[in-house]
Amino acid sequence: MTPPSPADALAPPWPHDARLLGVTERGGRTELDFELGEAAFVCWIDPREPDGRAFRRVDGARLGYRGDLTPQSTALVEAVAARLKATPGLLEALWEGSSSKARVPKSTPPKGPVGRALRPEEVATFAEAGWLRAEGFFPRDLVERARKACDRRVYGRSFEEQLAAFDAGDLEGSPFLDGGDIGHAPLPFGDPSLDALGVDDALLQALGDLVGGPPRFCEGGVYVRFSPTDARHGSEPWQGWHADHDTNCWLPPAEPIEDHHYVIAGVVLTDVGPEQAPTALAPGSHRLLARDLSRWIQDGLWQGTRELRDLREVPGIGPTTTATARAGDVLFWSSCMLHSAIPFADRRCQRAVLGVTAVHGDRAAACDTPSLLRPPHRANAHAFLTAASPAARTFFGWPPPGDAAWTDEACDRLESWLPGIDAGPYRAL
Known about the structure:
Number of helices: 12
CATH class of the largest domain: Mainly Beta
Radius of gyration: 24 Å
Strand order of the largest sheet: 6-14-9-16-8-7
Order of helices and strands: HEEEEEHHHEHHEHHEEEHEEEEEEHHH
Number of strands: 16
Distance between the termini: 46 Å
Number of domains: 3
CATH superfamily of the largest domain: q2cbj1_9rhob like domain
Shape: globular
Structural class: alpha+beta
Strand content: 15-25%
Helix content: 25-40%
Largest sheet: 6 strands, antiparallel
């Protein structure tokens, strides 16, 4: 009997309207790549080591998953197991088909710029003030999809469901019980709507404009404050002023600031008005910090490696402002910019930002630039890099197109190593 093809035997429908995006071989396993809602989910099948760990077993093969385990994704794994059991020869067809690189056509996040370019006057504003609000950087419909994906990553449900759970007194196990915010699901997120914004070519170009050269990745994640339980702020407006510089840089701020800082981009996923706890900022303070830090330390004004004792005691600080924004705006600020969290006036909301941090490529050695091949990034790294644009791969340390490393042999190996990648941009013309 002719074994069924993956495309025929794995045709829709799937539970919860999941879409099968592709069937690939990776690391000796057959992987079924699904889009579940707006999240990515992988069900893998491995006929080796029958006694190894597995979520389910079918005819001697182990079934496992990569992604968030929810009732919906559990149902999806159970559905894959049921189809393997019900269709004789499907397991062998999947294994042979994926190993020979036969696969269902796979959709990928959009390549190329989705956001807009920075204007020269915006770059100048950033250099002077140390921060910039780039209004309307991303289309709001794309940002709304990313916001919903962020909710699922952070809460495991929608924000509205999280709010209802709070009202019912049912936040047991919630990361927000302690009043803190969290960086959840570090980049790459494994979700196309979040990943596409986090490494959008226009965003990477903007970061390059602001660091003054080719940008290199430092950190990325989604950061959320849930107002009903939030307590992440000082009790007085002069408290809690700090710079983020030591989060990623081993060396202290120094002059010239352009050679000794990195830049944070915050893609705003929710509207942030005056009542939604916009971050308080001290424009121009990035240059003061670089110039006067040693004296502040000597005078006892600076605590540890990142925080002022009292903003009122610091000479030269001008009027402060707040970074209000709309969903789709991007906030950029220097790692040396002094800023502070303020309390929510609206206790029925959230504030969500997708943050991406970059340093000039020539100064990456002074910063913590984590490998995507180490946890917690590794789970989504290969699929992410396969789908990413050449600019995004360079952002994570790959040689750019045109580099001498990209021989025809190297490109051939790359296509074997990451099935489905387009090595065309790296091949010599």
